[in-house]
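Quick one, tokens below. Sequence please?
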């Protein structure tokens, strides 16, 4: 199995878009976005260029994909901008009517009615397993988008072929809850791509306790599985101090950029610098 991160916060855009190749080709959460405002500043030109580059990369990978997965209905995970991404694909999506908040329900309705004209089929995947050739795709039950369901629910995904298991957590903000981490551990993964703690909102929309619980839960994955590569990215990389926030775990984990052998360029977190303002300003 080959796993390729296509666009992630460590690579400069808000996204977790990932391509997986086993005997079938799977595209997960094919979308990217930018923070409309960060530190009171709009997106920098460099971020806009990176956004366009990531969009094109996702489009290229969609052309060779058989299956597209959408874990929830935030715009950094699905988009209506280019419905061709879903053309002739089997599309496995979060149930748009159950365990969903109002804003995602409305987005899901628009999205699904548009792509139903081009997709070869659409399946609601919550808590279901699918077998395609020698590949098993397992979906978690709906899991809160963080420590509460205020932002709705997401699906975690485990993909296994004969050799490896890959888990993609989607937006769980570091896995502060027991059920979020138990899906990872029970699938006994070789590789995990996880959405990390949302520490850029620490003390506001993300509590010290959420961070503590997340670090404890992530540590359990190292203790209870033989994981070989643990990638943590997305919300965590919006914080310039992300390495300090996770303490000793830093030495054990990779960002998506590092997994690809690249340098981290979390452009949103760097926005003040990009505009030539000091980071204390
Ligand atoms: Zn989300
Ligand atoms: Zn997201």
């Amino acid at each position: 199995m080959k796993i390729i991160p296509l666009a992630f916060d460590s690579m400069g855009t808000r996204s977790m878009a990932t391509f997986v190749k086993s005997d079938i080709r799977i595209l997960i959460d094919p979308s990217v976005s930018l923070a409309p405002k960060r530190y009171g500043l709009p997106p920098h030109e460099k971020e806009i260029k990176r956004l366009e580059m990531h969009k094109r990369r996702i489009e290229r990978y969609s052309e060779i994909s058989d299956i597209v997965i959408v874990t929830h209905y935030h715009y950094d995970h699905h988009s209506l901008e280019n419905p061709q991404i879903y053309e002739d694909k089997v599309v496995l999506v979060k149930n748009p009517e159950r365990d969903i908040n109002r804003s995602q329900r409305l987005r899901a309705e628009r999205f699904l009615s548009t792509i139903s004209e081009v997709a070869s089929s659409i399946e609601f995947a919550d808590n279901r397993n699918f077998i395609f050739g020698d590949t098993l795709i397992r979906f978690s039950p709906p899991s809160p988008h963080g420590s509460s369901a205020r932002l709705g629910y997401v699906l975690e995904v485990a993909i296994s072929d004969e050799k490896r298991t890959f888990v993609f957590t989607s937006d769980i903000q570091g896995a502060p809850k027991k059920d979020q981490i138990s899906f990872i551990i029970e699938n006994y993964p070789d590789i995990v791509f996880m959405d990390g703690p949302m520490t850029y909102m620490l003390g506001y929309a993300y509590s010290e306790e959420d961070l503590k619980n997340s670090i404890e839960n992530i540590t359990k994955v190292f203790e209870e599985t033989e994981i070989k590569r643990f990638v943590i990215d997305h919300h965590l990389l919006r914080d310039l101090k992300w390495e300090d926030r996770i303490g000793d775990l830093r030495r054990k984990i990779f960002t998506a950029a590092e997994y690809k052998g690249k340098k981290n360029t979390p452009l949103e977190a760097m926005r003040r610098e990009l505009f030539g303002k000091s980071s204390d300003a």
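The chain has one domain: 2-274. The chain has seven helices and 14 strands.
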